[in-house]
Amino acid sequence: MYTCERCGTRFGARWAEERSCPRCLAREGVRVRLAFRLFEDAPTRVTNPSPPGGLEAAVQRRLASGVR
């Protein structure tokens, strides 16, 4: 991945030959170098964590609480 050092936009290998950020060039007319980042530490996101004990335990808790 190539990342713009100014705006942080990421680009794939297609932009490797360009070597300047097309977004910054189009918006502000500024040539900004793209930096190659092989592996970037991305925060791990859990969008829908499973309840403790799994689905079966969640159903049992719901039935035990009397909520239908």
Description:
By secondary structure, this protein is α+β, with helices and mostly antiparallel strands. The protein has a domain at 1-39. Helix content is 28%, strand content 12%. It has 2 helices and 3 strands. The protein has helices at residues 22-28, 54-65, and strands spanning 2-4, 10-11, 34-36. A 3-stranded antiparallel beta sheet has the order 2-1-3, with no helix packed on it. The longest helix is centred in the last third of the chain and has 12 residues, at 54-65. The protein is rod-shaped, with a radius of gyration of 23 Å. The mean pLDDT is 77.
Structure keywords:
68 residues, alpha+beta, 3-stranded antiparallel beta sheet, 3 strands
Number of DSSP E strands: 3
Which percent band covers the strand fraction? 5-15%
List segments where confidence is low: pLDDT < 50 over at least 5 consecutive residues.
none
Mean pLDDT: 77
Order of helices and strands: EEHEH
The geometry reads as rod-shaped
Characterize this entry briefly.
The chain has helices at 22-28, 54-65, and strands at 2-4, 10-11, 34-36.
Helix/strand layout:
Layout: E1 2-4, E2 10-11, H1 22-28, E3 34-36, H2 54-65
Antiparallel strand pairs: 1-2, 1-3
